[in-house]
């Protein structure tokens, strides 16, 4: 169902309805004058749907002879072009994973360039940066809260920040769409418990500490304090907001719908006007349904006055006349010879 996400459900439904409607309009405009839209009922229905949906890939092979149908097709192809291009762009943006690429990943580069870095006030990280990492004390900037750290990054006060993993998880959970953590991770001696020599509690406490650190209990603590976030909510909402809705295309659908409706009304009006005598000559007692059925039967017939059928009918006639002339010419001398002999 991921392929449906680029468009909202109301746009999918509207597009499907318009494909069917445009197919019906083109069939109505071409049925009486175009052999490609004639034939058995099942063939006509299949041609109607095929022509409409094949415009998605511009693969329609049926020729269009009606000027009204040509106008409708041109407008509809423009709508389909915009719709398919928008779908492709939206799908591409959704399939492209939005990743945060840090500008600097090497600590030595930070030291070499003299970049300002942040640390949490009161943390042992301050001494680690000065004594172990050899940072210049003047390039260290303290912060006391995640909000203050975000402000330092936003205003360009620091390039990177160093802190303990639990505090960094809290910060990244709040600002996951703006920052990311990079390695390496440095390990330090943790907290310890001091007991008198020979204390019987040493073995019990050591077993309990190992059961917590090496078992699932530590993960439960982490989930309870930091939560379990598999994806960034802000990134997820931004991706979902990329779905294109009907409000982006209502203008194009309105133009296509009005043009198709006007062409359909013009075609039906012209047909009724040209066959007004047949409609008038029906028996007065005829019901409305009988008149509609009679007009539908007449509409199903070919319009022999159309230029498409006039061209096709002229070619066989010329061939027959030429054959008659050729076969008749030898008979003249024969009849004369018989007459003279007689």
Give the key terms:
disordered C terminus; elongated; 342 residues; 60% helix; mainly alpha; three-stranded parallel sheet
Tell me the layout of helices and strands.
Blueprint: H1 9-30, H2 41-54, H3 67-95, H4 107-113, E1 117-120, H5 125-132, E2 140-143, H6 146-154, E3 160-162, H7 165-174, H8 201-214, H9 217-226, H10 233-240, H11 250-274, H12 276-280, H13 288-299, H14 307-328, H15 331-341
Parallel strand pairs: 1-2, 1-3
Helix pairs in contact: 1-2, 1-3, 1-11, 3-11
What is the helical fraction, as a range of percent?
Answer: 55-70%
Mean model confidence by pLDDT: 78
- Enumerate the spans where pLDDT stays under 50 for 5 or more consecutive residues: 315-342
Biggest β-sheet description:
3 strands, parallel
Give the neighbour order of strands across the main sheet.
2-1-3
From the spread of the alpha carbons, the general shape counts as elongated
Can you offer a commentary on this structure?
This protein is mostly helical. The protein has a three-stranded parallel beta sheet with strand order 2-1-3, covered by helices on one side. Helix 1 crosses helix 2 and helix 1 packs antiparallel against helix 3.
């Amino acid at each position: 169902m991921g392929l449906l996400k680029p468009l909202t459900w109301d746009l999918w439904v509207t597009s499907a309805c318009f494909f069917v409607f445009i197919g019906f309009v083109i069939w109505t405009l071409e049925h009486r004058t175009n052999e490609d839209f004639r034939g058995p009922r099942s063939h006509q229905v299949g041609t109607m749907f095929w022509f409409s949906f094949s415009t998605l890939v511009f693969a329609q092979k049926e020729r269009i002879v009606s000027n009204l149908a040509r106008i409708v097709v041109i407008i509809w192809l423009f709508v389909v072009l915009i719709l398919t291009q928008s779908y492709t762009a939206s799908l591409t943006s959704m399939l492209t994973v939005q990743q945060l690429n840090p500008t600097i990943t090497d600590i030595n580069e930070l030291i070499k360039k003299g970049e300002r870095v942040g640390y949490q006030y009161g943390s042992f990280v301050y001494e680690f940066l000065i004594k172990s990492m050899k940072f210049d004390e003047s390039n260290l900037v303290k912060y006391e809260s995640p909000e203050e750290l975000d402000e330092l990054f936003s205003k360009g006060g620091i390039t990177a920040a160093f802190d303990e993993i639990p505090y960094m998880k809290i910060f990244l959970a709040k600002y996951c769409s703006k920052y990311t953590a990079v390695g390496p991770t440095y390990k330090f001696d943790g907290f310890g418990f001091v007991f008198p020599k020979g204390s019987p509690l040493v073995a019990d406490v050591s077993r309990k500490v190992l059961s917590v650190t090496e078992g699932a209990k530590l993960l439960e603590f982490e989930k309870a304090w930091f939560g379990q976030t598999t994806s960034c909510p802000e990134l997820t909402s931004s991706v979902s907001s990329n779905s294109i809705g009907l409000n982006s295309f209502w203008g194009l659908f309105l133009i296509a719908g009005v043009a198709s409706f006007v062409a359909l009304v013009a075609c039906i009006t012209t047909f009724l006007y040209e066959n007004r005598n047949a409609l008038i000559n029906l028996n007065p007692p005829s019901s409305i349904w009988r008149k509609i059925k009679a007009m539908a039967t007449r509409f199903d017939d070919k319009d022999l006055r159309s230029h498409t059928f006039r061209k096709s009918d002229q070619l066989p006639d010329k061939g027959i006349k030429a054959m008659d002339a050729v076969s008749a010419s030898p008979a003249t001398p024969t009849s004369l010879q018989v007459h003279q002999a007689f």
